[in-house]
Each structure stands twice: as C-alpha cells, then as structure tokens.
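@channel sequence for tomorrow's demo:
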Amino acid sequence: MEIRPAIAPDLPAIVAIYNASIPSRTATADTEPITVESRQEWFAKHNPSRPLWVLEVDGAIAAWIGLTSFYGGRPAYNATAEVSLYIAPQHQRKGYGSLLVQRMIDHCPSLGITTLLAMYFDHNTASQRLFTSFGFEPMGHLAEIAVLEGTKRGLIIAGKRIGATNL
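structure tokens (generated this afternoon):
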C-alpha cells in the first residue's frame, strides 16, 4: 500500500472511483457520471498547498483524498480547506478512509491550514462516523437543499481546527 501525490495518468481512476459513488446517492450531489475531460481543470487546481493524493493497493488506485480552497479561494479563507475523500466500493470498510484523513490532518500545519472542513449529506452515516472519529464537529446543517431520487436531503458542514506553522 502506498499513498502518493496524484499524477495526470491517475485521473481516469480518480474519476472512476468518484463515478462509482454516484448510484448510492450518499456521497455526491452529481446524479450522472462525470468525464475525465470535465475534471481536467479541477485536477490542475491541485498543487502542493491543495494536494490530491491517491492510495494504491497492489498497484491499483483504491482511494483518493484531496483538498480544495474554501469559498472560491478568496484570500481571507486561505487557512481553510475542504477535504474530499472517495474510496472504491471494493476497498471500503478496510480502514483506508481513516488512513487518508489522518495523513491529511498531519499535513495541514505544513500547508498553513488551520480549519479543515468536511461536507457530507446528513444521511451519509459512514462519513459522519469517520469525520466525527477525528474530532470534526458540526458547524452547520443546510436542511433539505438537495433532491436525490425525489427525496430532499441536507448537507452537514463539519470542521476541525488544526494548529498551523505559518499563515
């Protein structure tokens, strides 16, 4: 098992893992598969201060985690980032999510991040358990803002304060 920075040839696997989460209607508000082409710009925005990492198992990408700038990257929010985590269905419930979240938390001080945000549907109990186990606390609940399969769903915004070495 290896965690490493994502590189351009990883994008098809990253997209495939993301697309695999769509049918469950618990992990993303996308309702149709996305394309590799549609994620090129998103991929390019990841950099050393907003990393995108993949977890490889037996040479294949099993999961990915990344940070994005909060609220469009406005400068006053530079010390805040949103974490995104997706795990291929066949690799879920193996502890990979915890491994990746811990790795990201450990790197936040060197990235100047003092607030890490996780955003997930209020019916996504797996994400809620994972982030709560790392000390993320609810900071907001946007009730019934999404409609999935005809059902209104809410969004939880959970946050974790992290010490930073530089701002």
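heads up for whoever presents: Residues 96-111 form the longest helix (16 residues).
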